[in-house]
Amino acid sequence: MILTVFKNIGDRLSVADAYQKLISLLANDLYARNKATGSLGGAVNGGTIFLDDNGYYERIR
Cα torsion for 26, 51, 59, 47, to the nearest 10°? Predict the structure, then answer.
C-alpha cells in the first residue's frame, strides 16, 4: 500500500494527505483507518519512509 502512495524515492506528503490516500485505497474496508495507520507506522519502522519534524512523510528507500 505504501508504495502505491509513495511511488518514487523523494516523494513527500503531509501526514493527513498520506493517511487520506491510504484510506481511499481501501474505501470498502471496515478497518481502512486501522490498516492505513499500521501501514504508515510499519513503513517508518522498516525504513521505507521517514517522518520529519514538520509533519511530512518522505520516501527514502
Answer: -100
